[in-house]
Amino acid sequence: MVGVVTTISIAGVAAGVAALIIALAITNGMQRDLQDRLVDSTAHVQLMRVKGDGIQNWQPLLERLRTLPHVTAASPGLYEQVMVAYRARDVGALIEGILPNDEKTVSTLLATATPGAMEALQPPKQGGIAGPVPDNVETKPADLGEDASSDPPIVLGKDLADSIGATVGDSVMLISPQGDLTPMGVIPVFRHFRLAGTFHSGFYQYDAQMGFMRLADAQRLFDEKDLLSVISFKVDDLNHAPQIASAIEQAAGAGYMTNNWMEQNRELFRALRLEQVVTFIVIALIVIVAALNILIALTMMVMEKTRDIAVLMSFGVEPGQVRRIFLMQGFLISVVGTALGLVLGYVASWAGGYYHFIHLSAEVYSIDTLPFAPRVMDGVLVAAVSIGISLLATLYPSHAAARILPAEALRYE
To answer: Residue 123: its pLDDT value, please?
Structure first.
């Protein structure tokens, strides 16, 4: 019976350690993938004006800041909240005016756009379409290029386009609150844009609330002339983004402020770290249950070996030596169980990350497979916790064994 309980104790420790390794690998993988996608989808650092309507005379400022150390790319942008409407549906959105060639160097949002979307946002070609379009070919505004329609192009998030029921080629109406001042008050500006494409980044806040147009079109729509609301930067070291942002702010001069990807997503990553701690605590309960099995096994061992312990102590064995015997037995159980659990946990994590056999709903989780990212330090931490808890479980039975009195134990033998 003692041998069976010992085997169960080893299996319990191994199961708890393996579960901890796998759970930590999953939370690390989710945090890694989410961070990578967020960092790729947005700029690392953004420069804005503290006061005023926006960044004026931005071209020389952009060229000067582009050459700063650790800055790998820069892109101008003009943000504004608008209402996007198509037929009877409308929804609020954040529209950014961009220079496409610069924007794709700091963000990958438009990398997921439908074919032809990036080309549509390029400056209009001179000369229009070469040659007439045959009568037997069905055409849409999206197929005809810039001269086929007077509506300038716009690219919306896929969820945003779906919410208003618009498809590529449709003419959507943008309503800007930055309207004209009249005796009747401020009248919003209404303007039609051709939906040149959609993008799908996997992040709902972007796909359902953002859109892109050419910078010149945005400045005309928002009546901002030659102004910017932000200059976005890509840097070469993500972990030092706050320090690089401070250097950019100092180089820009007085009246400017910056934020970085760490500040923008602080609450999200704080929640992920909290989730990791909670997961560790919950799964560690399995190791505590396994430690109780070690406690039971050693207690049963002391009860079974009471006569043998008494005989040894009558021959001169010290109580401390008896205590160390049971401590070493509990330590051996914990070490064997922990080693087996580490092997099982890392093998399972590697297999899950390599073969991707656990699939997720991409619409819900933004990724189609469950990510695994096992770390060596997690194994060290889990092993230390497992062995520490197991050694605590051996204190009572080893102390009880050391307190056996030989005369009392052998009285009825």
So the answer is: 79
**Cβ atoms 193, 164 nearer than 8 A:** no
pLDDT for the residue 2: 63
Closest of 259, 258, 260, 255 to residue 57, by C-alpha: 255
Q: Which residues of the chain have pLDDT under 50?
A: 127-149
| pTM to 2 decimal places | 0.70
pLDDT the model gives residue 132 = 36
The string of pLDDT tens digits covering residues 348-405 is 999 998 888 888 776 666 666 888 999 999 999 999 999 999 999 999 999 998 888 8
Burial of 179 (0-12, 13-18, 19+ CB in 10 A): middle
Neighbours of 210 (CB within 10 A): 21
Long-range pairs for 349-352 at CB < 8 Å and ≥24 separation?
349/21, 349/22, 349/25, 349/374, 350/374, 352/22, 352/25
Task: Quote the pLDDT of residue 176.
Answer: 86
DSSP β-ladder status, 171-182 and 185-199: antiparallel
> Looking at residue 375, what is its pLDDT?
93
SS3 for the chain, per residue? CHHHHHHHHHHHHHHHHHHHHHHHHHHHHHHHHHHHHHHHHCCCEEEEECCCCCECCHHHHHHHHHCCCCEEEEEEEEEEEEEEEECCEEEEEEEEEECHHHHHHHCCHHHHCCCCHHHHCCCCCCCCCCCCCCCCCCCCHHHHCHHHCCCCEEEEEHHHHHHHCCCCCCEEEEEEEEEEEECCEEEEEEEEEEEEEEECCCCHHHHCCEEEEEHHHHHHHCCCCCCECEEEEEECCHHHHHHHHHHHHHHHCCCEEEEEHHHHCHHHHHHHHHHHHHHHHHHHHHHHHHHHHHHHHHHHHHHHCHHHHHHHHHCCCCHHHHHHHHHHHHHHHHHHHHHHHHHHHHHHHHHHHHHCCCECCHHHHCCCECCCCCCHHHHHHHHHHHHHHHHHHHHHHHHHHHCCCHHHHHCCC
Beta bridge partners of 175: 83, 190
> pLDDT, tens digit, for every residue of 315-346?
888 999 999 999 999 999 999 999 999 999 99
Dihedral angle at the C-alpha atoms of 113, 119, 120, 122, nearest 10 degrees? 120
